[in-house]
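User: Assemble these into one structure.

Assistant: Restating your components, then the assembled model:
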Amino acid sequence: MFAHIFKMMWQRKRANTLIIIELVVAFIVLLAVVAFIRVSYETYNAPLGFEYKNTWAIEFEPDIKDREQITTTAKQTLQILSQLPEVEDAHTMYFPPFIGASSSQTISSNNGDFYTLSTSISDGAPQAMGMTLLAGRWFDERDTDQTIQSVIINKRLKNGLFGDKSAINKTFDHDTKVRVVGVFEDFRQMGEFSPVGNYLMYRANLDNPKNFFRSINIWVKPGTTRSFEEKLQKILHQSAPNWQFKVNTWEQLRDSHISSGMVARFVPAVIALFLMLMVAFGLLGVLWQNVTRRTQELGLRRAMGATATMVQMQIVFELLVITMISIGIGLLIAIQIPISGVIEALTWGMFFQSVTISTVIIMLLSIACAYYPSLIATRCLPADALHYE
Amino acid sequence: MLRVYILLALKVLQRRKFYTFISLFCISVTLMAVLLVTSLIENIIHPPGAERNSQRYLAIDKMSMTASNGSSNQRSLPGYQFLNAVVKPMETAQLTSIFSLHNEVLGFRNGKRIKSQLKRTDSQYWEILQFDFIEGRPFSKNEATQGQNLAIIGESTARQYFDDNSALGQTITVSNENYQVIGVVKDVPVFQINAYADIWVPLFANPSTAFTKQALGGYMGLIMAETSAQVPAMRSEFNKRLSAYKHPDPKKWPTIKATANSKFEQLARLLDRNLEAKPKTKELTIGIIAAIILFMLLPTINLVNLNISRILERASEIGVRKSFGARSSHLISQFLLENIILTFIGGIIGFALALLMMYFISLSGYFPFHSFEINFRVLMSAVSVILFFGLLSGVYPAWKMSRMNPINALKGAI
């Protein structure tokens, strides 16, 4: 029966052009939103690579531009901070995590170009953040006064640059020549919603003003409350009177990153929901009208012995066939995205999952829309059809 | 004739309530979204409130310096030294102002932290921007240059520090500095980047004067002409003075670029980092219109489908009219009119929905202090969107209807 309906609808495809166009557009819109949320779910659940509990970020804005002077003052401040009873550990970083800012470079190698985020970081900071070391070692005194600067890189960048081979003690060009001393699991500085990418850390040498940094991060004793900030601000003010300091806990920075990330996904989802609702109402209206006009044909079928269920099936299947044709066309258009690889984070697996989800939603939608009109169709009486006109 | 058409249209709408409901739902929800977006853009480009004179001024808010060997390029806000040398002596500008970007500062009240945005300004700033003072006054030229520790604060900041008591003459402590409050102004929304802050203090109320020697970073300039017609002259004078400007260290930084932008250009500059190129205002306009049309694509197709169904239902009516000599053009105009009436009713509902949404968004505080305002321009764009929507979704069905064969139509088939 299905094959028969398919043949019928295929022959009438011109009459249904507009419905097909509508469903194609609806499918593509739905697929885009579903794929976006699917990819977001994946990045959100990918390991962050570090802990954010009991850590505070102090971003500073100096009143001067001289890097040497900035570094001297910042170094003093760092020392004062690390001696406070509430503070367990204090380290410098270029930008703290979760604030949506990072420095970035493109590393060119024989294996291609790698867009990489980076930060300078002081000795001991990776351990304090609970990062996982996969190979080599963290920074220490051995990295002082090296002619070639030491760096540590994340697993993804290591795989890109060196493949399966060990990366330890290998060198590559990153502004200047650098040497890999360690490989870590990951450090997703920009937070859970940021794309999974390459990361590189170089050693913050506080005696070298070239190694600039914009934040001091402190690890406080568990149980330290926000009220510590008043004391902290006083100390910072004494240490550098004309600088501006912005203090936030990492947890707080993460919270605002998560909530803005959620809003950025919630809004397209709501828009898609409304569009689908519109399409559903539209299909219902079109089909309803369609059925009332086909009294003759449907009544005749009933007269020839078709049961009510069969008539009902016919109406639902007709719309399903149209939907399937539309999904097919929509898929042909949408598949160009993973084929061309424009969106790197969208793997084939995720694409097909999103296609499945969208297909099911659209199919259910069209069954729901066809259900009420199909009920009306069963009310066509053979008698009405036979003395039509 | 028109009266008959309108009456007929209203009758048709009442006949099949379900179709009317579906159509109105599509139209009103779509229009609500379009209205929200246009009102947001309008509020950024033609802000009401403190920046209401935006047609008359330009903001100097982007600058870059390139080193002599070309390898190093610094890009930021302009610095005080640059603005003082280039903007302050301008002749075509009636008023000129230098002020800092807002900075986050922290105050405490009974151990509770209060976060605010602090801006340092000169005295002319208060003449260019029209703040609504609830109480008190702006600071005078003397107070600004002497760098007295005075502050003007926003309404909600005043409430945070002093509850409902008058803030005038009180002292607030932010970032370990004491300021005496001399004025309270209405809150400024975050989109008004030139005006936005919670606390405004004099430029020189800064204990350090290191900033006066910086050519780059941290400050913005505003230049205001007497009328909007004089803005182009002001722009060309700015460019002339810019090319005459020399960095204090001209050997190291021979190339200086900066731009003076209107509100729309400020927005368009976000698209392109190149300071030499013209701001991409045209691209931005096309982009916004294209996005709105793309968004309306699905609702339009939906409406076309519904309209075709409606027409088929009225086949016999059309057949009768055709047999009695109605011309195609009559039928087309009748149907288009019907459709436009329908879209207008949907438009009014959509307008009400948009007002409701705006109220809830303002309540949510997602955009600090932003209150949507619907002005004539937003209203006109809404009306044109409705007309466009109504015509587009009506033309094809109307054309299809006018081509119906009267004999078949009379029989109730196509």
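Chain A has twelve helices and eleven strands.
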